[in-house]
Amino acid sequence: MKAYINGREYSFEQGETILQVAKRNGVFIPTLCHFHALDHKPGTCRVCLVEVTDAQGNTSIVTSCNTPMQDGMKVDTRSSSVRKMQKLQVELIFADHDQNCIACARHGDCELQSLGEYVGLSTNRFAPRIAIDRPLDDTMRGMVRDMTKCIRCLRCVEVCRKVQGVAALTVDGTGVNAHVGVGMAPSQNISACIQCGQCTIVCPTGALAERDQNDEVLDYIADPELTTVVAFAPSVRVVLGEAFGFGPGENVEGRLVAALRRIGFDIITDTDFGADVVIMEEGTELLHRIKEGGKLPMFTSCCPGWMNYAEKHCPESLPYISSTRSPQAVQGALCKTYLCDKMGISPKKMRTISIMPCTAKKDEAARPQLHTNGIADTDVVLTVRELARLLRRCGIDLTTIEPEAFDNPFMSDSTGAAVIFGTTGGVMEAAVRTVYAVLNGKELPGIDVQPIRGESAMREADVDLGEGNGVIKVAICHGLAAAHKLVDEAVAGTSPYTFIEVMACPGGCVDGGGTCRVKGEYHPNASKRMQGLYKIDKAMPRRQSHLNPQVTQLYKDFLGEPNSHLAHELLHTHYSDRSKVQKESITATKNKLTLTDI
What we know:
Ubiquitin-like (UB roll), four-stranded parallel β-sheet
């Protein structure tokens, strides 16, 4: 079938909306609520207005996101009537919105601001509703939910339900006071939310955003009594560059090291080192479970979003989860012990700052079980978006800075196995490389474990552990919608797997809730970021965790051997059932409701 947009003829298929046809052909129609990647077209923002004339000559103004294109239809996206109505609608949205833009996490990266520019909004005829009866929830360690900035597009509700299978977010209130809430929970911190941050990726404004801790970091750096140690995650080196105009997946590791020195950090380390240590501990733990008859399948524990999900939604999974800490938690613990000892620094005078692609990492750092001798192993976690803001605050542009190398001799060396932790399946592949070497006394042929790689949300592979060691079946799952099924199989004793990797975010850490956003899109750079990590891995001189010389020295000088008593004390942890607290809080809230509330 054929129709016309702004006088030009286009072909389309039955069932396609006006907006779909327009986008496919490069015709811009502004919208806030529509989100193609989630197939989300609720028509709530009423901004994607167009003027249509049907085959019978009838003219009307409609929302293009949920109006089907019809054969012979004529669509005008720029008529005077359309522009006036779009401008009015954007004015009304701004009037129902906190307009203190300079204090917003999305300032300069806000889809509502961009929309105002598109419709030509220079002034607003309507005064803002300063007494908006919507909550500001800052009870979470990783995120802030400011509903005075909510435009009710419902993208966050959609991603929480469809992608994560968590359904923590609901629509509360009525009329102009309607906003995104957390159901019957008294606050988001004790709701079903796992702080994965995927909602912050899709939110077009600053209604859902990471908790900014840049000032805390600057205070640490400014204190002459403190030694500041910074480390950044594997995926950061292929994501951060996008905030400064580099291509997706481009490795900016050297520029980042140089930038962190310019900011004023005293010691620069690499969380890749911690990832290599994780493989030594987790691989040994897996072999012990296989040989000694421990709980199988063993689930990985590197992802804090997944761990929050396990504790809140399926606590029956906890005995099956590896006790090995995440690379961030391992790095932090070793900084406050091993590094302090090597460099003659008191742990009380050291502050560790971790740069992560994840909002849930902030929550992880605050866990009481991740403190050593009463001192937090990781003091502050900055997301990639926060780091980009910090660099700009310090007047640093990655495009103009020359790359520099790590110079810390204790916790900065890494391998290709550690680098691929940043993508889904990477933890599994890194573990297979080392487990094979331990069992066979020789390296895995070919190194690359291609059957484990991929982008599908759920995949499995048979892994040959070498002659006499048999074949094990492994699974990789990202996005939590499928994770619960894997847990149910494990608990029921019907799981065909020996080892399972779970990552909360689609694509793994390269698409974490704290990574760079692309306006109106959902992880469009996932594949390029992933390939960027594999490219780094392939170019590394050492690609197996057990070949990292600094890791070898760590065990020789300090830990003794993987899973030793000291290693368990510093590098392992435990998890607890948090579903009871959540249920009790919701029940208490329900009991307080009156008939008027209902």
